[in-house]
Amino acid sequence: xxxxxxxxxxEFGLIKHLTERFKINHASTLKGIGDxxxxxxxxxxxxxxxxxxxxxxxxxxLTYVPLKHLGYKAAVVNFxxxxxxxxxxxxxxxSLGISKRFSVEDLEELYAGIELxxxxxxxxxxxxxxxxxxxxxxxxxxCLGEGETDKIVYRNGAKINDLVCVSGDxxxxxxxxxxxxxxxxxxxxxxxxxxxxxxMDYILQRQLKPEARQDIVLAxxxxxxxxxxxxxxxxxxxxxxxxxxxxxxVGCRIFEDKxxxxxxxxxxxxxxxxxxxxxxxxxxxxxxxxFTVALEDYEKILTVDNIGIIGxxxxxxxxxxxxxxxxxxxxxxxxxxxxxxxx
Length: 343
Ligand code: ADP
Ligand code: MG
Known about the structure:
With about 350 residues, the protein is an alpha+beta fold. The protein has helices spanning about 10-20, 65-85, 105-120, 170-190, 200-210, 215-220, 235-250, 265-270, 275-280, 300; strands spanning about 30, 40, 45-55, 90-100, 125-130, 140-145, 165, 230-235, 250-255, 290-295, 305-315, 320-325, 330. Helix 2 (about 65-85) runs parallel beside helix 3. The chain has ten helices and 13 strands. The strands form three sheets. Strands 8-10-7-11-9-12-13 form a seven-stranded mixed sheet, sandwiched between helices. Strands 3-6-4-5 form a four-stranded mixed sheet. The protein is globular. It binds adenosine-5'-diphosphate (ADP) and magnesium ion. Adenosine-5'-diphosphate (ADP) binds near residues 15, 33, 128 and 129.
């Protein structure tokens, strides 16, 4: 494969080379790349702003993550945070620290992923920063989005008797990661071994190419539902429920048999002797939405696809519990997937 050294382009040439194919789509983007700052016009809308830092070796492992997927995921996880506020992502900036190990072709792959994410979700790339680094690859993406003043949804709005809902299924991204880690170990022991990913495409895709739930935010708005509280599930259901309940000063009851689990994820868990419910509670990176809605919205919420009602909000004194299949009550703990806990 061709390898072009980054030094061949110089900083300005490199930025131009990587970003010239990106198109500006939003009226709110008055000026994108090319000046000292981007210029945006949000008129009467509220601005949502979120940022994410990804470090090689801490947040991603390039032995099994292709750079195109990494670019896609780095952008999508930011979009997910904007959707979690019931808003819509509009612009991103991309900042990179790049060591000598990386070629222009590598960065082209990374930007191909970012471009695909921007196209898929209708987001403009409006700037960034680029620097040489001594230690691998660092990516920081900042995302701006818009929300309507009275429709922005915070973590602190859950009320007693609200229904607790989640989109999609949980634990799949974590099982995808377990599969990749297993095959990495097999490969380290024998580099002739072909990875065994048979029939596991769904959980791999959930780990390597997650999607943000734009569809759910659009569907809720179409049905006239504004959740009382919402966040995206990046650290496991348990940890996110604790955030919503503590910020809203309420408790909750969640039912084990209502937690949405994908079949492939369950099969993988069984193969690895793991508990899939534990993976759903404590695994990370599903990027589904968890939200609460008022009981009056029960009939409406049933008409939205890909949403499960998994429990309800209680008084704070009643605590946070998972109700098991035999009716046993297990206190929810925050042992969410967290890269800070690994060292
Ligand atoms: P400055 O010296 O003011 O930091 P730069 O030379 O770093 O400006 O950037 C020039 C332009 O290119 C700016 O519009 C900046 O936002 C954009 N830019 C820089 N790095 C990146 C990147 N990695 N991705 C996208 N845009 C970038
Ligand atoms: Mg700069």
